[in-house]
Amino acid sequence: MRLTPWRKQAELSREPRGIRRLRDEMDHLFDSFFGATRLSDWSSPETAGGWTPEIEVVEGDKNITVRAEVPGLDPKDIEVSVTGNRLTLSGEKKEEREEKKGGYYLSERRYGSFFRSIELPAGTKPDAVTAEYDKGVLTLRIGKAEGTPIQRIPVKTAGAATASPKKTS
Known about the structure:
There is one protein chain. Mean pLDDT is 76; it is low at 37-49. By secondary structure, the chain is of the alpha+beta class. The strands form 2 sheets. A 4-stranded antiparallel beta sheet has the order 1-2-7-6, with no helix packed on it. It has a 3-stranded antiparallel beta sheet with strand order 3-4-5, with no helix packed on it. It has helices at 9-14, 17-34, 45-48, 158-161, and strands at residues 55-59, 63-69, 78-83, 86-101, 104-119, 124-134, 137-144.
């Protein structure tokens, strides 16, 4: 599973790069052995018949940013959709290369489709999604609903509410 859990930006920057890579590799190992878990919510390349782009999810104060590595794709080959609270990324990579020089001929073809689906947390605005593609990275920004205050509920000790009984002589 390469999906980064919902975390604040400050928490992600404190995690050493080597630890994050080790965690990602362990998640991928478990997913390839047991299949995609309920928490990972993505199809592995072996089951989907394609490839899986790396995805990073970061929660900020005003929006949630999702970055997907999709090098070599044309933006018109990427589809982004939101259904309810589910963000879906899909697309297809088609790359052909032919080279004829002197006494040799080189022909390479790479292709494959991908599909990633992410459940958005409560408090997001699915109608406020922007998508931007730059140098192989697709960046999505999903707005968060404002005015959803956190209601703090005090926790009382059970013994503090009752008074101790008086002794009678």
